[in-house]
Amino acid sequence: MTRHWNAPAIVFLVLAIAGLVGTWTYNIIAIIEQRDFFGDWFGSGPAVGSLTMDLLIMAVAASVFIVIEGRRLGMKYLWAYIVFAGLTAIAFTFPLFLANRARRLQQLASEQHPTTTAM
User: Fold this and answer.
1) Tens digit of pLDDT for each residue in 62-96?
2) d(CA 109, CA 118)
3) Which of 11, 52, 61, 76 yields a CA-CA distance of 20 to 30 A from 67?
4) How many Cα atoms occupy the beta-carbon half-sphere of 100 within 13 Å?
5) Are 66 and 99 in contact (CB under 8 A)?
């Protein structure tokens, strides 16, 4: 049962459990109080807490992924994605990381299989 459970897998599993417990704690409060879930997003009800917890856990998981995957691929300035997520938004910096990750994967693939052109 513990086969293939490495440190990153355990970190992501813990974050998943925290995300489930954290968001559903607020969701259950909203259900018990018979709140308008979507209306509360704009009116400061339990739904705001659920959404906040959802985004916080996602941001932490994305940050962990950025560090692990970025180091694996030899990417530079990984700290900048995490710092700028707090200054701008994780919705900006995580896709930006994914774009640069795709570029890095393409670069590594082209270095392993260089194409030769006939002259």
Assistant:
1) 999 999 999 999 999 999 999 999 888 888 899 99
2) 20
3) 52
4) 17
5) no
∠ CA 57-9-22, rounded to 5°: 25
Q: What is the CA angle 95-70-2, rounded to 5?
A: 105
Contact 54, 9 (CB under 8 A): no
CA–CA dist 119, 115 (Å, integer): 13
The pTM assigned to this predicted structure is: 0.73
- Residue 22's contacts (CB-CB under 8 Å, 6 or more residues apart) are 50, 53, 54, 56, 57
Closest CA to 72 of 64, 84, 80, 61: 64
